[in-house]
């Protein structure tokens, strides 16, 4: 973990690099706000379950592999920020194809959030910054609350 003690910025050296000028997370008091986290692999442009054509356009993708990779990347950022999966309090889900992917995503989500059940909003978007089909934005707690 690395960060600026004065402003709460946190950059994980294990999670995929952000695709813009923003940290993986930011801590404010006992709350941790994660930037949008996708399924990319650190140190490469590789995306689990995605097949691109020669022009970089998505030919096919596997929502299961992408969702599991997103969950793992979120878990990594949480751990590197001093939090954990069980400390998640709110999740925003961005899907590029709600009609085709929601049922599969929802089943995987239910498996991974069977104990901790944070609030959740799921939104369909036209595209995401890289050729991915799912991204999560998470709020979690750090340290003692109350």
Primary descriptors:
146 residues; alpha+beta; 60s Ribosomal Protein L30, Chain: A; 7-stranded mixed β-sheet; two-stranded antiparallel sheet; 2 helices; 9 strands; 29% strand; disordered N terminus; RutC-like_sf
Describe the model:
The structure is a single chain. With 146 residues, this protein is α+β, with helices and mostly antiparallel strands. The protein has a single domain, classed as RutC-like (60s Ribosomal Protein L30, Chain: A, 2-Layer Sandwich). It has two helices and nine strands, in the order E-E-E-E-E-E-H-E-H-E-E. It has helices at 63-80, 98-112, and strands at 2-4, 9-11, 25-28, 31-34, 50-52, 58-61, 88-95, 119-124, 134-141. The strands form two sheets. Strands 1-2-3-4-9-7-8 form a seven-stranded mixed beta sheet. Strand 5 (50-52) and strand 6 (58-61) form a beta hairpin. The longest helix is centred in the middle third of the chain and has 18 residues, at 63-80. It is globular and about 50 Å long. The model is unreliable at 1-5 (pLDDT under 50).
Rg calc: 15 Å
CATH superfamily membership: RutC-like
Q: Considering DSSP H and I runs of 4 or more, what fraction of the residues is helical?
A: 10-25%
Between the first and last Cα atoms, what is the distance in angstroms?
25 Å
The largest sheet has its strands arranged as 1-2-3-4-9-7-8
List the helices and strands in order.
EEEEEEHEHEE
